[in-house]
Amino acid sequence: MKRAIFLFAFLSLAVGAPSALAQTVVAEANVPPDCPVQITSAACAPTDGGGHSCNAKFRVGASDVIAIGFKWVLTFADGRTHSLRQFIDGALASNVAFRAGEEAESGASRTGVKSPDGKPQVPVRAAFQVEFVVPAPGKFWGNAQSPTYWQMLGQRHGYRQALVRLKSIYATSGLPALLKELGVCSGEGCGK
């Protein structure tokens, strides 16, 4: 597995006590060379209110990508870690989330992470990985046991179930019933 480490300049903007220094942390990207997506930059920084936001930029390889899953692992000064997972799925929309050769960006935020004494925590280390990529229907790269992948599949199933229900309402009761079910209109004039 090729390890690419992206170092980002630390900002020394004091906003009060030393623990409130705003800094961008080192983000380590663990992406194998055969991954259909390559990371071009990654970083995490604190946000106002004690949270933090992580952002990665990546380039899609030689083929389009329908879906992609990411995982961030943030380590705090007290040694605790938090995982942030995210997926982007184009299967239910245009069937393509990203085009071949395209540069794109993915972000994940987490707010309210506090130490046991109630002080806001700032990550001191960040690791980023691509958990899975679905480059085409029936094709897959990565960890098929990833919780992020299963979350995406569950969401797809929910959308499909809703679509089946809406199609059934339309087929059996027509447009007025469909519009009423969607909450677009109500009453006698619905669908006219």
Write a brief caption for the model.
It is built from 2 helices and 9 strands; from the N terminus they run βββββββββαα. It has 192 residues and is an alpha+beta fold.
Structural notes for this entry:
The chain is an alpha+beta fold. The protein has two domains: 3-142, Immunoglobulin-like (Sandwich); 145-185. The protein contains two helices and nine strands, in the order βββββββββαα. The protein has helices at 147-173, 175-181, and strands at residues 3-6, 27-30, 37-46, 52-60, 67-76, 81-89, 103-110, 123-134, 141-142. The strands form two sheets. Strands 1, 2, 5, 6, 8 and 9 form a six-stranded mixed sheet that branches. Strands 3-4-7 form a three-stranded antiparallel sheet, with no helix packed on it. Strand 5 and strand 6 form a beta hairpin. Helix 1 (147-173) packs antiparallel against helix 2 (175-181). The protein is globular and about 60 Å long. The chain starts with a strand and ends in an 11-residue tail after the last helix.
Order of helices and strands: EEEEEEEEEHH
CATH topology of the largest domain: Immunoglobulin-like
- Helix segment count? 2
Q: What's the rounded overall pLDDT mean?
A: 76
Strand content range: 35-45%
Q: Which range best describes the helical content: under 10%, 10-25%, 25-40%, 40-55%, 55-70% or over 70%?
A: 10-25%
Q: What global shape is seen?
A: globular
Cα distance, first to last residue? 60 Å
CATH architecture tag of the largest domain: Sandwich
Supply Rg: 21 Å
